[in-house]
Galactonate dehydratase
Amino acid sequence: MKIDRIETFLIAPRWLFCRVETDEGLVGWGEPVVEGRAEPVRSAVEVLSEYLLGEDPLRIEQHWQVLTKGGFYRGGPVLSSAVAGLDQALWDIAGQAYGAPVHALLGGPVRDRVRIYSWVGGDEPAELADAAAAQVAAGMTAIKMNASGRLGAIPTSSEVAAVVERLTAVRAVLGDDRDVALDFHGRASVAAARRILPELAPLRPLFVEEPVVPEQNHRLADIVTASAVPIATGERLFGRHEFLAPLQAGVAVLQPDLSHAGGISEVRRIGALAETYGAVLAPHCPLGPISLAASLQVAFATPNFLIQEQSIGIHYNQGSELLDYLVDPEPFRFVDGHLRRPEAPGLGITVDEKAVRDADRTGHAWRNPVWRHDDGSFAEW
Ligand SMILES: [Mg+2]
């Protein structure tokens, strides 16, 4: 079997899909994308395709080695995401070739269902409480929310109080039987995190995510030791070597993204690395259906897995939805806040190829919002 053809599709709201076809007619799908940088990743996939065309798709590890290292210069979001999407597509093909779901090829399932969480949005505590109540009504057992909006380098008393009030309002809705995680999106400084986290600890968030931007990960130990709140990070890290320092700093939860951190092959290894530190995986996935399907395959095969992010119905996917590109949405139907184990070969979903080709004709030009502080200076989004 040989790889015959590789195509990419720019899909609203902000995704890029790749389709890998073999001379025997098998087709694998992947989702190689960096949010806001889909076009450079598309170019990277095209360059990497020069190597893959004519190759045996089942030699996944061999291809992963060459795709990540063969260009001499390596790593970074664009290249690692391009490799990630192609890796997903090769695993999808392998599963179909062997007649097995990917989790079976990874050693078989270690759990029967996967716990997921939904995002809740809102600026005011009352809005957040309403959104949390809606997720509880929908059967979710865990949610995640932003900790704050723009945050000063040294947060004021009112900024600290606002973060605590937001979490307090949501905890009151959830009680102790459900969980809430808090995402700082890298908006805090080390000093800010050390000031805020001890005040959040009594509210027992499941974890606090990306308190600081990855450039400051060498300070994570100072944040970990500031409180008993478990610290999570990883959506902007791109290979196992980048996760080592956070683990050594005492981070409890790793959040590699299946579409950024080298795909199924590398996230599997990141999970094994985390296991040696007693840390758990909660893969980042605010992306589309292929990325979520790949995440689930890893979740079902990884012992030290905690919970899965997903973006079905999320507020910022305007004009298009994760389920729009599937022939059958059933694999992503929640049952009691969990997803069931896929048994179909490969990634376990059937992509609606016509919908994808139609959407690609329109494309998208999604970009991150650029935030500013009151004085006009740049603020982390
Ligand atoms: Mg995040």
Summary: The first strand starts at residue 3 and ends at 11. The chain has a mean pLDDT of 96.
